Amino acid sequence: MTDSGPHPLAAPRMVSPAEAVPLIGQPGVLFIDVREAGELAQTGTILGALHVPRGSIGQRADPQNPDRDEALVAARHLVVFCAVGMRATLAAQTLMALGYRTITCVIEGGFAAMQQAGAPTA
After folding, report:
1. What pLDDT, on a 0 to 100 scale, did the predictor assign at position 10?
2. What is the mean pLDDT of residues 101-122?
3. CA separation for the pair 52, 79 (Å, rounded)
4. Tens digit of pLDDT for each residue in 46-64?
5. What's the rounded Cα separation, in Å, for the pair 87 and 34?
6. Contacts of 5 by beta carbon, 8 Å cutoff, 6+ apart
7. How many C-beta neighbours within 10 Å does residue 84 have?
8. 117 CB contacts (<8 Å, ≥6 apart)?
9. Where are the beta strands (DSSP E) in the chain?
10. Rg (CA), the chain
11. What does the alpha-carbon distance between residue 93 and residue 59 come to, in Å, rounded to a whole number?
12. What is the pLDDT of residues 67-103, one digit of tens each?
């Protein structure tokens, strides 16, 4: 998490896949794939992305949860993506409610569009 002050925005920053790709591998940036495990098994994911299904993001990101994912807590900038953008938007809103401040949401095609924009995948 970053700064604990009030968030100046009512929603996460929304970006296109082409705008998101240059953030891959940047220090302090963590990509979060909120698709289901079956989707990842079929397509893979962005290189270095953390897989946290949309339904478990609240538990895994909650700084008060002793079983939280430390990678989420330590990251300074979270970039959330899914297949299209809807689940990523919902996950980003959950993260904001938990106090995370620097969140970017990939819309306009999600994972497949980031692949087409040149994102490295695993």
Report:
1. 58
2. 94
3. 12
4. 999 999 999 999 999 999 9
5. 7
6. 101
7. 17
8. 17, 18, 20, 21
9. 13-15, 29-33, 50-51, 77-81, 103-106
10. 13
11. 14
12. 999 999 888 999 999 999 999 999 999 999 999 989 9
Distance (Å, rounded) from C-alpha 81 to C-alpha 92? Answer: 9
Which among 34, 21, 15, 12 has a CA at the least distance from the CA of 100? Answer: 12
Residue 104 and residue 77 in contact, taking contact as beta carbons nearer than 8 Å: yes
Rounded CA gap, 52 and 71, in Å? 11
Q: What is the pLDDT of residue 46?
A: 97
CA–CA distance from 48 to each of 65, 66, 104, 119 (Å)? Answer: 24, 24, 16, 11
Going through 27-102 in order, the beta strands assigned E by DSSP cover 29-33, 50-51, 77-81
